[in-house]
């Protein structure tokens, strides 16, 4: 297998985002108690809230009058009132009250964005609202399946979202970055190779087995009597930055590779990367397990192990972001293991290009 | 009454300042004990001090030799010595000593600015010194009138000064921003309308009455037995950013609106906004009362109430500044209550334009 | 003597550096225990380390694969392993291992820089490696001479290195900046003039005597019975920013100026200024004494006095940097004492220009 010599697509700060797709904007629990959440998404300051009807609302976080923050306002019914001069906006963004003024110009208002709450996640559509089809939201059934338990997480990243996608495209980094948390041993990088790399129309699928090795620390912490294990990771990544992973640990030699899973302990992991700006990212995630469902401390231990592991990634990737910003002329070099990454970046770039060509055609 | 649909003049970071006018540079107490005060005014770093003669001096805060800060120097007589290599400058900015060198080039020196100390304020003229006429300084007699007592204040703002001027141009914000401090109730925005809006050649005058309402918290704190009151605010704003307000509280129904003021308690408020840069502002203010002149705690309570209230504005306005900077293409929308604001911005823009046309004519 | 009226060469943030010369990159003690030191030099992020062979290595601090920091990696033998995906690089920067991949493209690697360890200093050559001749490293024999003792120091400066060079080019600043630390009295500026200013091909030499004055505080602290002294400073500055100074204090009237040095106490000072970026500087220094060699507290006292004094400079120079950045149009004015400074800046500018002309000629 030869190293891929051509330079490949790099994220750059000025690169456009894919607009016509669903991004995770929040966990549902962030919007309880009529809380106004200020969150910048794809460079747009957005305010998210749920009023009396319980339906989530997303508006520009900028009063159309003087630019004050609506997120510092007050929820009234399904409306939000700007607490500078008191203008009130309904869930569609239309201005419905101006204190001391009877006549409200019909066009006065702020932009609103389609939002859908599903399986504890609040999704937002930043592109053409007419194309916002909830059927296009990717399904991750484990969040609603009582056979699985997890603890939702959030991390903020000072890095472009694609650098985090890259990170997940090559699991050999487990060996070096996460030796003491999520990985286990450097052997993982040298001995376990992906058994299958599948290029998908909107992402990739990678399967990787590591046979007869000690379990990684995060698993050992909650399953104390785990001996040597066969470990399988099936990872799928979808545009614009959605990662699902199925992990299982089965006693070494128990035949998991032949479908014998009765002694396996399994995990389901979802990770959602939503660009805040071109150099910062919202990272939503959950790591669910299918055993010990009555013990909340298992979920909590796994949550904490993931935070520890993700912070190991974060340190590397945020430094990488600074390095890339400092010298935009730097060209990365692909190694063999980068095949999924290269495919993903090309796929996404092609979709963004097509979307922009469409916008230009409409404009012309 | 229709909403004004045209977009109106917005402050932008690159917008020029009005140069040929007096700005407040400091309170007199800042210059006691020969203290050197470093203060950037209209983007120019200035050092202010009073030497042995007691006359205030303003010079460029940059030694003409190597650019060291004169404000880190030493006052000697009416001169200041740079404490890097020891060059000494007199009150006009001329270099009068170079240690170890006998011959001083006559043109060696730093720029000086006209300054006038009046009624506890130190005013500076950043434009053409030949036009600096002290008679043009606006008179606010209450600062020297022993019938009034106050406590001088200063706040630094991370916002363009015109956003603060805007804030004072529409008192409906009292209802939403200052409900628990300076305002009192949201009713103020809905029920009390300005009774008079007067467009002045160099600003505006707004009068607003609120009849038969509970007094606002700041007044209630110092006048505990205040019942329902009739409240009158007369506000005047002058270019470049000078605000005077006369406030009275009279027992509800006592006929204040007909001139019966014998039971009224009155306040006089001055606020001076001096651009530090296009995105930061020096804010000098005093809030004076005409009763309980022997009780220093009344002044102190009012001072603290104002600080609390001004910090409520500051939080909103500094967020507004960030929002406007983040998207310079954003167009504000005027409501009816913005009439004074729109007039003020137009007036100031016209004066700045005229001043710049004059400068160009001279240059050509 | 007339003041030099012409404006002279100023450091600007965009100014190029002299590349083909040796810069100090580190003290040797920074690299013990296989420590990886991340240090930006002339805008290039570099990682420095010593592996098993004990020879210092300098590589680009950026993995050629994905841009991760090699300084967060791991030393293995004389190699460094990137701890993101495990690529290993030898001391020349060549990639020698890719985990999970057998074939390593021969050109895969990172840049390396010539480094030389000499007399406790680690020197680096950022220009054309073929020209890196260790014989060009300036000799400061006192660092290896057991007749002298010191304590190596480091300070980081938020200022262009030339502003620090300027500082050392005119010792009249001792009188104003360092009155209570390194200077002693303001008389130094007024009465002591340089007795000799020698323009060198690659710098300057200044000699300055101050006869019959109290010793400066730093000397008085370690030589408590020092009475009035004759003080001589011989300072030499070399491109790109290397400063050597010989200082002696002899009892006043003991004839030091005629070569009678038997009662003198002497110091040797080296200072090395290495640009980190155009607006920040690494400052390495040592201040050595030739007496009380058995008493470590003398070295320590002198070290601390120098830190105090250098921090006085730092406060002025970092403010100066901000002032110059704020207004690039500002023109400094030279005084008579600036002759060495002006010569040095011109010399360096000429050398940089020649180097760049050479680069262009090669390119064309």
Structure characterization notes:
- The structure is a homotrimer of 364-residue chains.
- The first copy, chain A, is an alpha+beta fold and 364 residues long.
- Helix content of chain A is 22%, strand content 30%.
- Chain A has 6 helices and 18 strands.
- Chain A has helices at 161-169, 173-177, 187-191, 217-222, 296-326, 339-363; strands spanning 22-27, 37-41, 44-50, 56-60, 74-76, 79-81, 88-89, 95-97, 112-113, 115-118, 121-125, 153-157, 194-200, 203-213, 229-238, 242-251, 265-277, 280-289.
- In chain A, the strands form 4 sheets. A 7-stranded antiparallel β-sheet of chain A has the order 12-18-17-16-15-14-13, with helices on one face.
- In chain A, a hairpin with a 5-residue loop joins strand 7 (88-89) and strand 8.
- The longest helix of chain A is centred in the last third of the chain and has 31 residues, at 296-326.
- Chain A is globular and about 75 Å long.
- At the A-C interface, helix 2 and helix 5 of A face loops of C.
């Amino acid at each position: 297998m030869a190293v891929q010599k051509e330079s490949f697509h790099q994220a750059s700060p000025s690169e456009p985002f894919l607009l016509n797709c669903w991004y995770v904007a929040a966990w549902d629990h962030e919007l309880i108690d009529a809380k106004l959440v200020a969150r910048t998404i794809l460079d747009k300051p957005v305010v998210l809230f749920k009023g009396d009807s319980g339906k989530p609302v997303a508006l520009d976080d900028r009063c159309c009058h003087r630019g004050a923050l609506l997120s510092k306002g007050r929820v009234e019914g399904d409306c939000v009132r700007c607490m500078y001069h008191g203008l009130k906006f309904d869930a569609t963004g239309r201005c419905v009250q101006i204190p001391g003024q009877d006549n409200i110009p019909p066009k006065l208002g702020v932009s609103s964005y389609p939002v859908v709450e599903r399986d504890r996640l609040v999704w937002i559509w930043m592109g053409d609202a007419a194309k916002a089809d909830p059927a296009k939201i990717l399904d991750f059934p484990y969040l609603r399946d009582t056979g699985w338990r997890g603890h939702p997480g959030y991390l903020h990243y000072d890095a472009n979202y694609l650098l985090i996608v890259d990170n997940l495209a090559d699991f050999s980094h487990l060996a070096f970055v996460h030796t003491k948390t999520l990985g286990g041993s450097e052997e993982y990088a040298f001995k376990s190779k992906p058994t299958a790399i599948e290029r998908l129309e909107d992402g990739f699928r990678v399967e990787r087995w590591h046979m007869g090795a000690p379990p990684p620390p995060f698993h050992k912490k909650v399953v104390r009597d785990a001996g040597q294990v066969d470990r399988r990771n099936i990872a799928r990544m979808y545009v614009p930055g959605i990662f699902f992973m199925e992990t299982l640990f089965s006693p070494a030699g128990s035949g998991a590779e032949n479908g014998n899973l009765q002694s396996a302990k399994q995990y389901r992991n979802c990770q959602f990367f939503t660009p805040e700006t071109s150099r910062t990212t919202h990272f939503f995630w959950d790591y669910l397990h299918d055993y010990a469902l009555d013990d909340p401390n298992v979920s909590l231990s796994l949550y904490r192990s993931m935070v520890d592991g993700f912070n190991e990634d974060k340190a590397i990737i945020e430094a990488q972001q600074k390095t890339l910003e400092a010298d935009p002329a730097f060209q990365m070099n692909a190694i063999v293991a980068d095949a999924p990454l290269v495919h993903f970046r090309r796929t996404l770039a092609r979709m963004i290009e097509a979307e922009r060509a469409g916008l230009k055609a409409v404009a012309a």
